[in-house]
Amino acid sequence: MIFRHLLLLPNILVFDFGAGTCDISILEVGYSPSGFYSKNLSISRFEALGGNDIDKLIAIDILLPQFLKENGKERSFFKSKDLREAIIPRLEKSAEMLKIKMSEKLSLLQGMNDINQLIDNSDGVELNHTVEMKSKKGIFTLHNPKITYQDFFNINNMFLSTETEKFEKRIDGESEFKSIYLPIFTALKKAYLDKDDIDYLLFIGGSSKNPLIQQSLKNHFNESEHLVPQDLQAHVSSGAAVHSLIFNRFGKNIIEPITSEPIIIITKDGEDEVLKSLLKAGTMIPSETIIINNLTPQVNGQKIIEIPICVGNKNKIVHNIKVESLENKGFTLSTSIELKIYINADKMLIVEAEIDGQRVEVEPLNPFSNKEVFLRDKEKFEAEKEFNKSCALNHGVTTEKALKNIYSEYRRLELELQSAEMAEDLYNMFNIGSLNNIGLHYSKAGDDEKAMQFYEKAMDEKPSSVTALNIALKYKSTNRKLYIEWLEKSMEIEKSHLNSYCYGVILVENGNSEEGYKLINNSFDNWKIEYEHNRLSVHISWFISCAKFLNKYEYAEKLEKEMREKESKKDEVYSSENLTEFQNNRIN
Q: Coil, strand, or helix at residue 258?
């Protein structure tokens, strides 16, 4: 039976679902004159998904509400940073224990018919222990964490959807939860196979013990033979030991590892951006060194050269080599550009570059994480790494300089929630900043409740026209009377172009067109001068609204076009004007 299948070159999908990753490999097993062989057809290493993601979602959706209820607190009582970095991680261990306990209980049932009868069951499992957390805000506890069958099914269903483009987000969008079918479909696509082409489905990894995951995959691969080893967690280590023995004793790989996606650089060809594949998907690891020495700037005098390195597609940029010309002279078309690239035995991408005598050192890159990377994500990670490093050097104590730096980076990246929390820490720890500014960040982050708390505190401590206007705007769509009252209070303290515009609109709507349009036109004229001198005192959207109110639609459209162009450039990892071109199609 097995030998017959081997002659037919069976395809084996290995589903390795561990704590931190979901790794999919598709192997072809066959027979050649030199004996049996196994060939990797595709790999999808998915570091954005693992069994601990199930634990985390249980902690957020199931245990956090229990924790808040027991301690009599609303979710807004805790900063998102506290939830992400302290409370949720503290609950995850209990979540894992509940997951294991529930999986074991379901495994004892006779079959999926018995399991499916529990989908709406409010019974479940419970832990006989207490989770205790100490913080600056006090001591908090959770006694006897629990999860029902219904909850467990709902949590798992989020990871078992075949609609892989949809995924769940939690804690202000910081945590993402994706389906196990995403890496599976990716691996099948790379191998040019359909699910019915899979002869064997092999389960590996501790998280594969979950009976709901097993059954979902068995139903999906209903034409395949399903292999569930007795000890799911021992096979990887056993295989590694066998591989090490054969490789070190006989110098032969049992399975040749390959790249799961192509390594690409972005260049220009005339006016078009083009993707040039340097290492194809399926390249053996370790790879040969690829040397590119026929790149050139687009034009004489180009001030900056950028070489974005991608995996799979242009959205998944793992690094952007960026070099400025010395003394701002600009590069010439004869500038020497050399790029060396290869993947080592540890599956790390090694990149070396030399541009006009300037050597560029690139840290080894992990190119196969299956997560699309954008400039803001990378810069956020770097800012947080520097912040943690600074605190570690100061014996774990946050410094004023470190807080200022990370707050500045969050603001630059327009991460409003993180900016709000850092601004709050700066104010509380070092008396830097203002309550109004903290409220404004929370408002932009969509947390109106916290925004109003800080605005009101600011008015109590030091009333200002700006804060009064911010409060007025919170009432604009919910309470017209309070909106007008706070607008008038803002103008009483100090008139500005913005409160004058807002109040002018109220006057026009109430029939006092002459006075209203006078205020509105005055605001428009002042904003126009500010805009033309590149020092607009409000967000451009207010200026656009003002222009439209005055029926200056042509001018408003011009402003909107300029705003869209500026917004579109914010997340650019590279500038198209700085890319290189190939002199010819030669890649050594």
A: strand
Alpha-helical regions (H) of 32-180: 51-58, 64-70, 80-82, 88-107, 112-116, 149-159
Whether a cis peptide bond, with omega within 30° of 0, leads into 364 is no
Enumerate residues 6+ apart whose C-beta is below 8 A from 562: 540
Strand 11-17 relative to strand 200-204: parallel, antiparallel, unpaired?
parallel
SS3 assignment, position 587: coil
Q: Do domains 2-48+182-250 and 263-373+575-582 have the same CATH topology?
A: no
- Contacts for 329 with CB less than 8 Å, ≥ 6 apart: none
β-strand partners of 13: 26, 201
In this structure, how many other beta carbons lie within 10 angstroms of the beta carbon of residue 135? 12
Q: What are 95-117's pLDDT values in tens digits? A: 999 999 999 988 887 566 667 77
501 DSSP 8-state letter: H
Q: How far from each other are the two terminal CA atoms of the chain, in whole angstroms?
A: 47
Q: What is the DSSP letter of 280?
A: -
Assessment of whether the complete model's pTM goes beyond 0.90: no
Structure-block tokens of residue 13: 């999908």
Judging by DSSP bridges, how do beta strands 337-343 and 349-355 pair with one another?
antiparallel
Rounded to 5 degrees, what are φ and ψ at 38? Answer: -130, 135
Does domain 2-48+182-250 fall under CATH 3.30.420.40? My reply is yes
SS3 readout for 344-391: CCCCCEEEEEEECCEEEECCCECCCCCCCCCHHHHHHHHHHHHHHHHH
Phi, psi for residue 15 in degrees, rounded to 5: -100, 100
* 27-41 pLDDT, tens digit each: 887 766 666 666 778
The number of residues making up the chain comes to: 588
The DSSP bridge partners found for residue 24 are 15, 44
Burial of 542 (C-beta count, 10 Å sphere; 0-12/13-18/19+) = middle
* Rounded mean pLDDT, 321-328: 86
CATH number of the domain at 263-373+575-582, out of 3.30.70.2580, 3.40.50.1820, 2.60.34.10, 3.40.50.2300? 2.60.34.10
Helices (H), 445-496: 448-461, 465-475, 480-493
In the chain, where the domains are located: 2-48+182-250, 51-176, 263-373+575-582, 375-462, 495-572
SS (H, E, C) 17-32: ECCCCEEEEEEEEEEE
Contacts of 554 (CB under 8 A, 6+ apart): none
Question: Distances from the Cα of 126 to the Cαs of 59, 63, 96, 131, in angstroms?
Answer: 14, 11, 12, 13
